[in-house]
Amino acid sequence: MVFDPTKFKAPKAKKLPVILLLDVSSSMSGEKIDSLYDSVTDMLQAFEEANIQEKMIDVAIITFGEEVLLHTPYTPVNELRKAGVGRFHAAGSTPMGTALKMVKGMIEDKDTTPSHIYRPAVVLVSDGAPTDNWEQPMDAFIHNGRSAKCQRFAVAIGSDANRDILRRFCGGDDTLFCAEGASDIVDAFSQISMSVSTRAASSNPSRMATPSDASFDSNTAQDEDDDDLYI
Q1: Could you give the CA distance from residue 70 to residue 117 in angstroms, rounded to a whole number?
Q2: Global pTM?
Q3: Domains defined along the chain, listed by start
Q4: How many Å apart are CA 201 and CA 217, to the nearest integer?
Q5: SS3 category, 117
Q6: pLDDT tens, 77-131?
């Protein structure tokens, strides 16, 4: 038997994507938009500390207000922490439905969101009600295709947030966080950060669905470790 050093390769880190859908409408201006920015930077720090062993958290940010923008494409959290997150600017209305279409497009595109990764966590944040057609995009995100297998959270900011819609997105009160004022946004994000970081530290970061949903893509081969579940 001939020794071949090229056969000995270090395992690559498996991705755990986190996508933030952030309402930056005009009603978020002032203290709320500043607290939202601070909360996101605090979340990145928590995620960087959770980048352990052979798992890596990638973060993407979509903002919706005057425009729906891919503010930050998938970026490893350690790189994003070094580069810094661009400031958010509050303006416009609340095109939540369009934002949901964009995030679904990201997840369904296998070049952007590959199959052999852990299930993404998607966090929807809003302080108001959608101003565009949101029902069909939300139902499609929750029930159809690869996006149906994501972990979902929602943050309702203030009394004007439509909590019924946000609850519908995340699936229940256990994953709906209510921030009564700007100061509570940090606490809501902290709780979500803890939940995602716990997933990253676990032996099975995608174990949050029934065995029938074990693969993010049924045509994708499973990892050698059958206990790991991928999207």
Answers
A1: 21
A2: 0.84
A3: 13-202 (3.40.50.410)
A4: 23
A5: coil
A6: 999 999 999 999 999 999 999 999 999 999 999 999 998 889 999 999 999 999 9
